[in-house]
Write a structure and sequence with these properties.
The complex is a heterodimer.
Chain A lengths: L10 E12 L6 E12 L3 E5 L6 H9 L6 E6 L2 E2 L5 H11 E5 L10 H11 L6 H10 L15 H13 L5 E5 L7 H18 L3 E4 L3 H4 L4 E6 L2 E7 L3 H22 L1
Parallel strand pairs in A: 3-8, 3-9, 6-7, 7-8
Antiparallel strand pairs in A: 1-2, 1-4, 4-5, 9-10
Helix pairs in contact in A: 3-5, 4-5, 5-6
Chain B lengths: L1 H39 L6 H36 L1 H9 L4 H40 L13 H28 L2 H6 L10 H23 L9 H17 L1 H33 L1 H30 L10 H36 L1 H10 L3 H39 L9 H25 L4 H6 L1
Helix pairs in contact in B: 1-2, 1-4, 1-5, 1-11, 2-5, 2-11, 4-5, 7-8, 7-13, 8-10, 8-13, 9-10, 9-13, 10-11, 10-13, 10-14, 11-14, 13-14
The chains are: A alpha/beta, B mainly alpha.
The structure holds adenosine-5'-diphosphate and magnesium ion.
The site of adenosine-5'-diphosphate has 12 residues of chain A, from β2 and α1.
Chain lengths: 259, 453
Amino acid sequence: MAGYDTSRAAQALRLVGVSKTYGSGENPVRALDGVSVSLAAGTFTAIMGPSGSGKSTLLQCAAGLDQPTEGRVFIDGSELTGGSETALTKFRRQRVGFIFQQFNLLPALTVMQNVALPLRLAGKKVDRKQCRSILEKVGLGDRTNHRPAELSGGQQQRVAIARALVTNPSVIFADEPTGALDTRSARSVLTLLAGAVREFGQTVVMVTHDPVAASYADSVVFLADGQMVGTLAHPTAEAVAERMTHLGDEVSLRRVVGA
Amino acid sequence: MIQLAVRSLRHRAGGFVASFLSMFLGATVVMAFAAMLDTAGGAGVDDLSEETLVTMATVVGGWGLVIVLFAVTSTMTLSVRQRAGELALLKSVGATPFQVGRMIVGETALVAVAAALLAVPLAAGGGWLLLEMLQETDQVASGLSYAFGPAALSIGIGVTLLASLGGAGVAARRATKLRAQEAMTAVTIEQTRMTRKRTIAAIVFLAAGVNCGIVTATVFDGKGIDAMQTAGQASIWFSIGLALFGPVLVRLVTAVLAGPLRMLGGASGYLAVENVRRRTQHVAGALMPIILFTGIATGTLYMQSIENSAPPAASSSIPAEDVAAIETLNLVVVGMLSVFAAIMVINTLVAATTYRRREFGQQRLVGSTPPQVMRMVGMEGVVLAAAGVLFGSIGSIVTVFPYSLARTGELLPDTTIGIYLAIVSVAATLTLASCLGAARKAIRMPAVQAVAV
Ligand SMILES: Nc1ncnc2c1ncn2[C@@H]1O[C@H](COP(=O)(O)OP(=O)(O)O)[C@@H](O)[C@H]1O
Ligand SMILES: [Mg+2]
């Protein structure tokens, strides 16, 4: 695939002809339409596209939160096969970390407990030192005993990043991680994500609609109407914004012509 | 927008089902007993029968008022809390707290009228059955003819409306005080200490219960069934006192069970303990009906069971004919209390668990399997059931032991333990089934959708 360094041995994420259709009755919605993409380990990829273009669906199918209607998904070389939620959860635990727009921290637990939770649920021994050092890395070493409700949005999102990092997953998926944050908090979150990629070789896939956020990534994948319509390596905010405008034109043109 | 409306409607329907059921059952029982007043007013009713009939109607009517008031307050407060978002929206577009309150009271009034009217046919039949039973057991003369008229209708509908509007008024007052923001963050920064008012009320109720117990064992010693006058109330007051101390009791039981739950329950046990700790107020709200059910049902049924196997006392002031009527009343009041407590247990737990759908979704996204979520909820249910049964049993002691002492001279009653086991099983089953049933339904929705709510 153009724009990717295919010489890397490990493909952290590989999607082959992935399609997803919601509903089956009168008006089935084809949210994803034959998407194939390979992402090398240690890369930071942004997924962009207009609202409703299938970004979240792509992320969920790739992360094993949803089952594609067609196609195959490989995370770190292992194929995501259908199965019970329990089986999928166990598959995800070892390979996938999540960051959401709405943080999704458990309100009853402290910052430290939230970060340690993925380990606990997986039945692993909780290394408090390791958790603390990750929290220090995201700049929250002094907040370990606070509850999420006592933190700002930016701080909560940094806890969520720490929680995603703690299991050392093959891929971290982030859906609009800066969507609910002010500019400054957004910048610190993006810097942390980019840092995780550069310093620890994490693989990050981030859905965003913000060209500035996308510019933190190594490359951008553009989606429109459930299809991959292009990529951009070493993106700058201006270049991304430019492509997005054309994408808008392209999509409306397609709709008119294709109708 | 449509989704919002549907969701709100569903929550609302759920909230109203429990309120409606409380009103409907309350109206049915009160009306059926009030029909005894109509019957007593008929031609050719002897004095003794009239007195029995009037007592029955008055006692059950009074209890009905109190119970429905409690039930409606509890169910409406819950349904209003679930609509905090909708209510905040109303306020943000300019509705005054008064208007919001009026809307809540208005909705309740509609439900209450419907419940009371629908109860009429059932109550008419129930009253007839009641009279039949009273005649069969020779509590009233067999020649009486049944009447269902103005007294039944006015008292039945009146009591239901009065209790419902009272309950709605309290719920509305709470709702207008509660801001949407508070409602959303209530879980995490809930107030961890009991208010002074609540502590004082709890102590007063406990003292009243103990006092009734002492009077039963001393003043009414050897006075036969007269002792029921104070013994019956003892467990009611004491259980209410304990229920008010709910937050403290929850913490106590959690402290004891935390170790075993963590050890045996793994990550689920750990989460259950943390959740209960952080949500003492919520858990205490669910604990209240379980304590009341266990305490009052055990107290009253054992009192009756002791009475039935004790020899009649010579110095009793109550004529033998009334003994059967008292038993009937005991059973009716306990039956009523139990049914309402059961509705409240189910309603509170189902609503609280459904409300946590988002949290369950968040947990699943972090790596909880569905069985792990269910185990966590189950263990929280165990804490709740254990606390409810334990303190309910303690609540019943102030009735059972003094009454046994007064009637037989023995502290421990010489009757079957079967009743107690049955009550405990019902309480535990209701608690666990409500929690687990609601949780099962809550996690049927895909996790991603659940957190998007
Ligand atoms: N659970 C669902 N059921 C039905 N349709 C859905 C569902 N989720 C998404 N869609 C539809 O699929 C399309 C893509 O949605 P989504 O992936 O959320 O887009 P994006 O994240 O790019 O805004 C949209 O048309 C959306 O309405
Ligand atoms: Mg989206």
